[in-house]
């Protein structure tokens, strides 16, 4: 039997958050599969058991906590040499009890940033990215001048946005660079990440932390190492582009258009069903894009999305 034909072992796991947005990690016992590595607590779903029940049961058995609120984060199928798993990961943001290693396993609360310092099983790469990424992503729209760009970005940061993707194809390169330099301290002060949507060479020259590729730049990219920053993502519209993004080990993608949007009036929307079908096959965090806003977050999560990305919703808020 080939690896991909093997039965997937369904596993429920949790990114558990405390009031300070720290995340709970546990260390797998040395004698277990993937032993000695750190994990998001959880375990195998039993035959006939709903996955949410399995999550609640495992977190009580392993940590002694009772889940009060959970939402889907990401689903990752992964084929190890010796077994295949489907990691069904939830965010648990409210629970009762004091989490402790009931099976003698070391546990630790860490910040989202500190996750990068820990060794996880190979399947966890996109899960770690999902745990570090926000649910809402702002893509900048048009503005009358630099001052207007700054004012609109400041308002979005005040609305709680923590990821700003600077997209300004109408600007000359020198103006784009100047705007990036002016936006950076604003975003830093708010603890937000500032990314750019531009060509690779320019992003590297700017020392950008995050680069978002359009479909043409995704098609041209040879290797993700060509980008010197930390986060590399792309705009996808179909299964082939999603596969390409996964192959290049990008950190996340946007998938669009989900709904009708004035910025692309002639493109046929995927609809939620089309989005869910494509997202279900993806092995990296996916943002729903196109006519999206805060009101769509629950619908996006229910269909496997990381969250929503938008211009209009927060560019005038
Ligand atoms: N819980 C968890 N499992 C993970 C992660 N990453 C990863 O590859 N796995 C794999 C390791 C295991 O093959 C499987 C989870 O099984 P498990 O050993 O936790 O199962 P369990 O809690 O039911 O334990 P047991 O009854 O089999 O002893 O998923 C992760 O982040 N969390
Ligand atoms: Mg377990």
TrEMBL record:
InterPro entries: Aldolase_TIM, Mutator_MutT, MutT-like, MutY_C, Nudix_hydrolase, NUDIX_hydrolase-like_dom_sf, NUDIX_hydrolase_CS, NUDIX_hydrolase_dom. It comes from the Bacteria. It catalyses: 8-oxo-dGTP + H2O = 8-oxo-dGMP + diphosphate + H(+); 8-oxo-GTP + H2O = 8-oxo-GMP + diphosphate + H(+). The keyword Nucleus does not apply. GO terms for biological process: DNA repair; DNA replication; thiamine biosynthetic process. Mg(2+) binds at residues 42, 62. Its EC number is 3.6.1.55. Its cofactor is Mg(2+). GO terms for molecular function: 8-oxo-7,8-dihydrodeoxyguanosine triphosphate pyrophosphatase activity; 8-oxo-7,8-dihydroguanosine triphosphate pyrophosphatase activity; 8-oxo-dGDP phosphatase activity; 8-oxo-GDP phosphatase activity; metal ion binding. It holds the Pfam family NUDIX_4. Keywords: DNA damage, DNA repair, DNA replication, Hydrolase, Magnesium, Metal-binding, Mutator protein. 8-oxo-dGTP binds at residues 28, 33, 39-42, 124. Residues 7-134 form the Nudix hydrolase domain. Belongs to the Nudix hydrolase family. This is 8-oxo-dGTP diphosphatase.
